[in-house]
Specification:
Elements lengths: L7 H4 L2 H11 L1 H22 L4 E7 L16 E7 L4 H69 L5 H11 L1
Antiparallel strand pairs: 1-2
Helix pairs in contact: 2-4, 3-4, 4-5
């Protein structure tokens, strides 16, 4: 039976194989979501340092409340709120930033691990393909040796033991 050649994946570059692996790994998708959540938490914590401004405007219309109540009234107002708990809020923002960086480093470490796994698998695949080529060469050599021994046996230049040894080398 003829053995097939090296698989198509062996011909593909490492980057394409890593790309496929990254798409198929659920832990990478989960880590990407963790990184996104950590970044959002960091942004929220940073916004807590800024002042909060609330603007209010209105124009109520009323009739029949007497002659001293205006029929149309307008008002505008605003509230500026700035809490001065800077130490606690600053530390919370710093902690959230550190968590975001930690999540990014974890994602990078996970991606590097996938890259190394794929690279090792490709190297194993290449080594197996080389071993297969060596095995094919050994089979071809054993077949030729058997053919030569059979011809020598037919011409009575060797014994049946030599032919059997060549057959054994082929298996």
């Amino acid at each position: 039976e003829e053995l097939a050649g090296p698989p198509a994946e062996l011909e593909a570059g490492i980057e394409s194989c890593v790309g496929v692996a990254r798409q198929r790994r659920p832990e990478l998708a989960a880590m990407a979501k963790r990184v996104s959540q950590a970044k959002l938490a960091r942004d929220i914590a940073r916004w807590q340092l800024a002042p909060q401004l609330v603007a209010v405007a209105g124009s109520p219309h009323s009739q029949g409340h007497g002659m001293f109540a205006p029929e149309n009234a307008y008002y505008v107002g605003g509230v500026l709120k700035w809490e001065w708990e800077w130490g606690a809020k600053w530390n919370t923002a710093s902690e959230a930033g550190a968590r975001a960086r930690q999540a990014q480093l974890g994602a990078r470490q996970l991606e590097d691990g996938v890259y190394l796994e794929v690279k090792a698998a490709l190297q194993d695949l290449k080594a197996a393909a080389e071993t297969l080529e060596l095995a094919r060469a050994a089979v071809a050599s054993a077949e030729e040796s058997l053919r030569v021994e059979q011809v020598r046996f037919e011409t009575q230049m060797n014994t049946s033991t030599d032919v059997l040894d060549a057959q054994l080398a082929l298996t």
